[in-house]
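User: Okay, second chain of the day. Same drill as before: sequence in, structure tokens out.
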Amino acid sequence: MTFATWPALLVIDVEGKGTHPPDLVETAALPVRDRRPDKSTAGLAAKPAWADVAERVRAFLGNAWICAHHAHTDYRVLAAHLPGWQPTGVLDTPRLAKATLPELGTYSLDKLIEHVQPDLREETCSRLGGPTSRGPGPRPRCRTSC
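Assistant: Same drill. Structure tokens below.
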């Protein structure tokens, strides 16, 4: 298998209410292609109910790899709301950072962003519960994928 034949990589973030499983309030997914965000995706025009978008979310996620900060939570919530959905793999940013950047000592999302300093000036994303985009310029203290 070469990189060209691998399933897509999606950076994801879910927000939910405290029920078990959590009620989804918002789901964001940002495709990554050639080590950069894929800006060709479009979000939904409104903020519909989960039942109205669940199959569209399932189709969008497909069998991609997913990546998130504390990914077990995002995976568990999505899997509970999308029975039978299974990503190809799950990447957890704190675990990945601990293995590759042991000198950091702390692995909060803010600390990782500060250390890696990704160029987010042109970042846009698709919120599966409604579109959003960021204008040019640095973005202070991001906490989610979008």
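The beta strands are 9-16, 24-33, 36-37, 65-68, 90-92, 124-127, 132-133.

User: Thanks, on to the next one.
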